[in-house]
Amino acid sequence: MLKLFLWLKYIRRRRIILMSVIAVAVSVALLIVVASLFTGFIAAFQQSAVDTIGDIIIAPEVLPIEKYPVLIAQLEQTGVVEAATATLTSAGLLHLGPGNVRPVSIWGIQPERRARVMGFQKSLLCQSRAADPPSFRVAEAPDSVGGFVGIGLLGRPDERTDEYDQDAILKEMLGKRVLVTAGTAERTPEGAQVAKKRTIPFRIVDVVFRGVYQLDSSTVFLPIEVLQKELYPAQTGDVANSVSIKLKPGVDPEAALAQIRKLWETFAAQELLWGPVAVRLTSDEKIKTAQEMQRIYVAEFEKQKDILEVIFSVISFGVVVLVFCIFYMMVKLKQKDIAIVISCGASSSSVIGLFLGFGVSVGVAGSGLGAALGYLITRHIEQVEHGIRILFGLKLWRSSVYMFSEIPNQIDWGSAAFFGTMAMAGAAVGALVPALVAACTRPVEVLRNE
Fold it and tell me: pTM (2 decimals)?
C-alpha cells in the first residue's frame, strides 16, 4: 500500500514522469509500425507469387510442355492437387493506336481454370462479380478474339492519389479493337529457322487490376489456343510453357512437391519422350513452390527489415537513458521521503523494489499505450498516408515504386509482443541504478540536514 501511495504521489506531483511513459510509447509504436509494414510487405510479395503462378509451378523453360491436358488430368487425379492450369507466354508489342505502342508480356491462359487455381476472376474489373466463370467471349462479335489487358497499359494512376480512374478507362477501352505483335521461329524448306512476325488482333473484353504494378503495366491475356496457333503454327497438339498448380487445403507444399516431381518424371519420359537428363534437370530445378521461387528476394527483404529494426532499436535506447535521468533526479529530490521510509523500518530491498517497480510500471504503461498507438497507425496507414499527402503534398507510397497499390496494414503480433517486453525491460534497467542509489541512502545524514 505504501508503494502505491508513493507512486501516485510522485505521478501527481512529478508530471515529468509522464514524459518517460510517452517516450516508451512512441518508441514501441514506431518499432511496431516498422516491423508490421515490412512483414506485411513480405507477406504481400509472397502472396502475389501464389496469385501469379499458383502454389507450385512446372516450368521447363528450355522445351515446351506438349499434351498439357494429359498432365493436368493426371495431376488432378492425385490426392494433393485441387486444380491446375496451363500458360503460354511470349514477349510482344501492344498497339493501342497510332503512336501508342507498349512492350508487353503476352500470356495465353485458360481463364476458367486460372480462376480456380489463382482466384484470377477477382482481378477483372467487369467479370469479378459475375456468377459465371471468366471468359474471353466478345458479346457483340462472337467470332472475334477477346483479350484482357492490364490497367497500367491503358491508363496512368493520378499523380496525387496514385489511383486509376477505372470508370473512364472502362468507358474508353472496353470493346476496343487492338492488336499485339509477337515473334516466332519458322523452319524453311531448306531446314533453316527464320524469325517471323505474328500479329493478333483482338477486342478488349475486360481490364485486369491485380494491384501489383509490374503485372498491371505489362501483361496482356489471350486465349491459349489463339496464342499457340500463332507461335507454333506447325504444332498440331497442345503446347504450353508452364503448368500452375493449386494444392488442396491443408496439404504441405514440400510434401506435395516430391509427389508432383515423380509424376512429372513419368509424364516427361512416357508422353513427351524426353531423355533422362532433360527429365531429371527439369524435375530438380524447374518444379518449385511459389515460396521457393521468391526465397532469394524474401531473404533480402528480411535483411532490410532486421537492419531497420536494429537502427530504430538503437535510437529507442535513448528511452532507457531518459528513464534513468528522470528517476535519478527523482531520487535526489526525494531524499527526505526515502530517509523516512527507511527510518520506519523498510529494508534496502524494499526501497529497491519501490523504484524498480515504479520503473516497470512506467514500462508497462508506455508499452500498452505504444502497442495501442502502433495498432491504430498500422491498421489505418492508408488514412495516415492520405493525411500526410493533403497536409504536406507528399505521396509517400507509390505503386510504381513499392509494387503494390495498397499499403499492407496487418499487425505483426510477434514483433509487437517482443518490442513491448523489451520496452518494459528497458524501463526497468533505466530505473535500476537510481533504485540502488536510493537503497544506499543514510537516513541520519539526510534528516540531520533537513
Answer: 0.77
